[in-house]
Amino acid sequence: xxxxxxxxxxxxxxxxxxxxxxxxxxxxxxxxxxxxxxxxxxxxxxxxxxxxxxxxxxxxxxxxxxxxxxxxxxxxxxxxxxxxxxxxxxxxxxxxxxxxxxxxxxxxxxxxxxxxxxxxxxxxxxxxxxxxxxxxxxxxxxxxxxxxxxxxxxxxxxxxxxxxxxxxxxxxxxxxxxxxxxxxxxxxxxxxxxxxxxxxxxxxxxxxxxxxxxxxxxxxxxxxxxxxxxxxxxxxxxxxxxxxxxxxxxxxxxxxxxxx
Length: 260
Description:
Blueprint lengths: L4 H136 L4 H15 L2 H13 L4 E5 L5 H15 L5 E5 L6 E6 L2 E6 H24 L3
């Protein structure tokens, strides 16, 4: 078999031309397209990675802010709780102080009422005892109660001695105003003269006296000069009576408490 080298050469040339044409117009565009696609895919992947990194960064930032918000919320909640507790304690303290003040005021009011009632009872008792004593002495003696009180008062003046007498004598000497004799009733001239005589004889001097009526002195006579005072009244006896009655009233309570 003879080989036609011309034909072989022509076919080889045609093949080379075909290869060049295919490479020039087919493979190269395909390769370029593939290369461009790879680059585009690589760019898209890079962009996706960048976006993913940005998203991760934003996610981390959001997580950080969320944690910071949680810490701030916990701090604010703790602060609000502490302030609420402090305010509660303050309000409780004020309420307790108000309650204590109200209780103290109520106790003081009750104490004042009790004192006023005690004073009223004491004054009423003095009035009743004075009235009874006046009537009794008037019925049993020829002298009035006022006269008898004057006699008792002058006798006390004459019987004064020691420190009380010395203090009253010094008060008479240093006083710029007359001595004052106060009584619940208007003393007659005879009784005034008796008291004046008793003073002059007791202190061996002429003692100036001013007589006054004082309704608050129930059943008694009071002499005062320059801060010094000597007095006698039914109140002295009522004080002993009041003390005895108080002890008598306490006795059942003590007896009842002893068995317990």
